[in-house]
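Is this the right way to post structure tokens for a design question? Let me know if I should format differently. Anyway, here goes:
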């Protein structure tokens, strides 16, 4: 009689542990699966660079955002404070033409 109860408890314990392990595995798979992303959220393989502002530097200069984007295979140029000048408009259009996602920053100054 004692051995039957022991086997029964062991069987129940094994079944509960197996069920718990399966449930934990299911949760971990769900947590690691792909999720819907908004179009402007960075992807896992995005390379983001920031420039803070556009500078008048020659092409290839270390502070040239286009050279930096090429050097680091960037996919996004973020955090640029804009003054909304014609020169900045040309540069933002060039960024988009080169296939980079552009994300400006709020708080820039308006030109007079």
């Amino acid at each position: 009689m004692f051995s039957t109860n022991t086997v029964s408890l062991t069987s129940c314990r094994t079944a509960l542990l197996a069920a718990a392990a399966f449930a934990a595995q299911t949760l971990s798979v769900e947590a690691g699966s792909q999720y819907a992303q908004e179009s402007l959220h960075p992807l896992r393989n995005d390379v983001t660079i920031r420039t803070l502002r556009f500078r008048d530097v020659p092409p290839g200069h270390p502070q040239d955002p286009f050279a930096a984007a090429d050097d680091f295979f960037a996919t996004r140029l973020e955090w640029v404070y804009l003054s909304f000048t014609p020169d900045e408009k040309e540069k933002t259009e060039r960024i988009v033409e080169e296939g980079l996602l552009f994300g400006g920053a709020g708080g820039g100054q308006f030109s007079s």
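Format looks fine. Someone answered above. Worth noting: Strands lie at 48-52, 76-81, 101-105. The first helix runs from residue 2 to 32.
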